[in-house]
Amino acid sequence: MLMRKVLTFLSDFGSDSPYPAAMKAGAAGLTEARFIDINHQVRPQNVREGAFLLWSVAPYFPPGTVHCAVVDPGVGTGRAALIITSGGQHLVGPDNGLLLPAAHRLGRPTVYQIAPRQAGLSPGQTFDGRDLFAPVAARLSAGAQPEQLAQLTGHWQELDFGQGSLSLAEGWLKGQVIYVDHFGNLVTNISAELVGRLLSYGERLRWQIEPAGQEIRLAFQPSFGFVPPGEPLAYLGSAGTLELALREGNAAERFQVTAGAEIRLRQAR
Questions:
Q1: Displacement of CA 160 from its chain's centroid (Å)
Q2: CB of 77 closer than 8 Å to CB of 48
Q3: Given 3.40.50.10790, 3.30.450.20, 3.40.50.2300, 3.40.640.10, which CATH number is that of 6-152?
Q4: What is the value of pTM for the model shown?
Q5: Strand partners, 175
Q6: Do the beta carbons of residue 27 and residue 134 sit within 8 Å?
Q7: How far apart are CA 136 and CA 180, in angstroms?
Q8: Which of 21, 42, 109, 206 is most buried as measured by Cβ atoms within 10 A of its Cβ?
């Protein structure tokens, strides 16, 4: 049986607004693809958060998937609109870094700048999600090639989450919180590879919270069930990086930590 193509949507429009439905309406008459919502609750104008969410899920979609992602503080200005092809998938959205982490994770990106006239579109000033990105994404999912809708470009805006660091001699890991999830778990940019070079399950750690100077003792464990309720732990999350959490609690609220916070963990020797 021939599988239908998948077209995903991600935005900061809010699930309680009409805008996600309007964006999908802009695609509905142009494709028979199956629509999947990744998230429409990205914090307003938070490009980095939207980029993380797209980066988190894109590798699990089948080849041929098209992602339409819109977190677009620069709508109506001269910022470019992009199609990026990578790893057999297409990503469509504004040129503000939103698409790049996912594109790099999928493979080697090829970047195109959308030419609205070439695509047969006349977008307005405030809703490119409906008037530009959704129709372009729909046409790609229906079989159009990027070259029919856009021009190759060597210029685009990058965004990355940085990389954690490690000192084997001093026994510490450093990084940054790149996302706080629905449960208040803290997703960091410290990779599983770095963690594996320093830590074994069951090890005790000291977590220095800056700038308050508070120190938290916690264990590195495979999952939540290895610590009592209410206790903090570090573990490797589903995104493949180190996460910090409170079993059956909210670590972000308890420790007053937000995305962007610096993380320093030291072996409790």
A1: 10
A2: no
A3: 3.40.50.10790
A4: 0.93
A5: 263
A6: yes
A7: 31
A8: 42
The per-residue pLDDT string of the chain (269 residues; one tens digit each, 9 = 90 and over) reads 567 899 999 999 999 999 999 999 999 999 999 999 999 999 999 999 999 999 999 999 999 999 999 999 999 898 999 999 999 999 999 999 999 999 999 999 999 999 988 888 888 889 999 999 999 999 999 999 999 999 999 999 999 999 999 888 888 999 999 999 999 999 999 999 999 999 999 999 999 876 666 789 999 999 999 999 999 999 999 999 999 999 999 999 999 999 999 999 998 86
Q: How far apart are CA 240 and CA 258, in angstroms?
A: 20
Contact predicate 80/132, CB 8 Å: no
Expressed in angstroms, the distance from the first to the final Cα of the chain is 58
Beta carbons within 8 Å of 54's beta carbon, 6+ residues apart: 10, 38, 67, 69, 91, 98, 99, 101, 102
Angle between helix axes 134-141 and 19-28 (nearest 10 degrees) is 40
User: Residue 33 in contact with residue 8, Cβ under 8 Å?
Assistant: no
> Which fold does the domain 165-267 belong to in CATH?
Elongation Factor Tu (Ef-tu); domain 3 (2.40.30)
DSSP letter string, 193-223: HHHHHH--TT-EEEEEETTTTEEEEEEE-SS
| Token pair in block for residue 250 | 């909210």
